[in-house]
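User: For a benchmark we're assembling, each entry needs the component sequences followed by a predicted structure for the full assembly. Here are entry 17's components. Please fill in the structure.
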Amino acid sequence: MIAEILCVGTELLMGQVLNTNAQFISRRLSALGVTQYHQTVVGDNAERLEEAYRTALSRADVVITTGGLGPTVDDITKRVAAKVAGKALVLRPEAEAMVRERFSQYHKEMTPNNVSQAMFTEDTAVLLNPNGTAPGAIVQMGGGKVVVHLPGPPREMEPMFVDQVEPYLRKRSGKALISRYIRIFGMGEAMVDERLRDLELGGNPSLSPYCSTGEVMLRATASADTEETARAMLEPVVDEVCRRLGDVVYAVDDDDRGSLAKRAVGALKRKGWTVATCESLTGGMIASTLVEVPGASDVVKGGFVTYQSVAKTMLVGVPAETIERYNVVSAEVASAMARGARERLAVDIAVSATGLAGPGGGTEAIPVGTVFLGISTAERTVTIPLRLSGDRARIRELSMKNALDALRREVER
Amino acid sequence: MIAEILCVGTELLMGQVLNTNAQFISRRLSALGVTQYHQTVVGDNAERLEEAYRTALSRADVVITTGGLGPTVDDITKRVAAKVAGKALVLRPEAEAMVRERFSQYHKEMTPNNVSQAMFTEDTAVLLNPNGTAPGAIVQMGGGKVVVHLPGPPREMEPMFVDQVEPYLRKRSGKALISRYIRIFGMGEAMVDERLRDLELGGNPSLSPYCSTGEVMLRATASADTEETARAMLEPVVDEVCRRLGDVVYAVDDDDRGSLAKRAVGALKRKGWTVATCESLTGGMIASTLVEVPGASDVVKGGFVTYQSVAKTMLVGVPAETIERYNVVSAEVASAMARGARERLAVDIAVSATGLAGPGGGTEAIPVGTVFLGISTAERTVTIPLRLSGDRARIRELSMKNALDALRREVER
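Assistant: Structure for entry 17:
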């Protein structure tokens, strides 16, 4: 089975939107063992879109579109596909019910042009969109070929693809394919690659690395006639990877939704501990990321954003002399922040971060990217110095991730 | 002048790499007024790449490739372009000097296969790569058409494009294109579309909408012989949009980097005010987003993450009876949180958020998505009830955005 991704939207050609959809779908397709030879982007232009459909359908079995399902005149993806299929768009009552339900859920009025979102060709399978008004679709194009329409916003597209398109593709391909995700923090890609080089087969099972800010994720995938066989093939590979990499592996999951925050919250729950944060350069990002995990309220008691120096003194009692003497970006201040937060919120453990995210303010002694983390428990208070590189956003994000990793390590100690 | 981007690399088809290159080049091209109708990705396969070159050259004047300039057998981008041009690759001494210099700078040995990086067709203009070993190229394909070869790694590609390709394109096109970005919060896309329908021309100037969580952005673009003329054509369109939409327009920018946080921080700076936050369901996201803005330290003093109910009492003095009597998700608690944060941090204004992000915990009286914001100044304390929909992440993000919008509105009152 050959698939081809066709992203529709002038905003992509203008560079206004980063095409994360193509990567997301590509990843999932390759995990499913579906081959891809081309990806195309075209604008909101009926003539060029029609040509792109015809080209894609001439070389692929499944053409997956993203974008252009909305109610405006610019949204031509469905209309042009119907034209290529030689069929008419009709109002599909089940789709209309979906659109109406979403509007009533959002407490919004449904304008007449929104009805167009419920129009599909007769033999189209309509896909539910739990996160937006535009349903997706699997459209029969003749000769066994299909066009799959997905909405453009990633938060609508991604669950629709995983929950509704993947089962369709899996059924169509007739193979069981199982993936597991090994998440690594604290070891660079080159080092991971070196340790695993002899395991990284393009074969079956396969093992492929993906990088994001400060993290490496490995996907191990096996394909077999049954899920059970695939799962059994995968087990020794996953075990061997974990053995070689040691405790930089922070999660082994059956889906790719694992995160440092989930691991930290899990560790806290197991130990029955509560946590507090005290954040300067991260400005609340550590707490907010912990709180992303459903059920975090059992363990996350609260925190402080001590952005200005004076707030460090006012909120968690960092002595003004400590700031004066050691600089606000120092191990001493990080330590006092963590201790102060732990005592004031009466929690079992507190984590703090102070540092210089830039772009300005760096000196030779304290360059941009200098960060100190603090971790305080009843037993001890430790600090971790970091020297990070990148822009303001990257330095803040890496600080947050290092803080979450330090937190889980201390809790699991 | 029409350009087309052709990204070469199996890693893109496998989803291993996010294609930021296409966005970067698209943005720069559209700022230059160069039109694009298609973008294509193909793998490291000579036959499919040759076909992709022929298709792209049949419809564009300038075809810009990324990737595949390295020394391995997989790196076929130059070789296939030379074949399509009907010319031979020869060793270009100036290119060889560039490659040798880079190797000596990196203290690496140059292996014989690296010489291939210095081979180009006779009439190719070689582009210096200050950040890597592979030079880029502008290759004459006949009929005035060219193929531009750029390396794959963004840190090599981006400066090469800006410093060497843009001057070439600017000289070639001779047109000025100006865009302005109108950012809207608090009005849905369908409503914006309805109010502006008669203005939304695909012509010149053009006006196009883009949506993200809770927000709509409009891009107005004009093309003319000079920047000045383009700017003058744009002005009445932007004014008319602002007049029709009113105060839901929170930013009109010359680049697309505007944000609710930037507007709020700007408003606070103009008034010389400091701000504090007190966050429950957003867990620090409001503060963290304010702090994303460089220079936020002038106005963001600090904040509280009062995630558990008891933290609301401990940190900002919300009376336990208020929580008991009105529920923790209530206007009364939001109001007490904002007032408490303002007083404890001695700031001019404080913003608070309490609500239910789900997935669990909803009741008929207080369903998931119920959120109360509080805004407190010396003069008054107001609360804003919200009924949001979507998953946990969306409810938290929308709460944050509404809080930033409420903050700027109160400061600008």
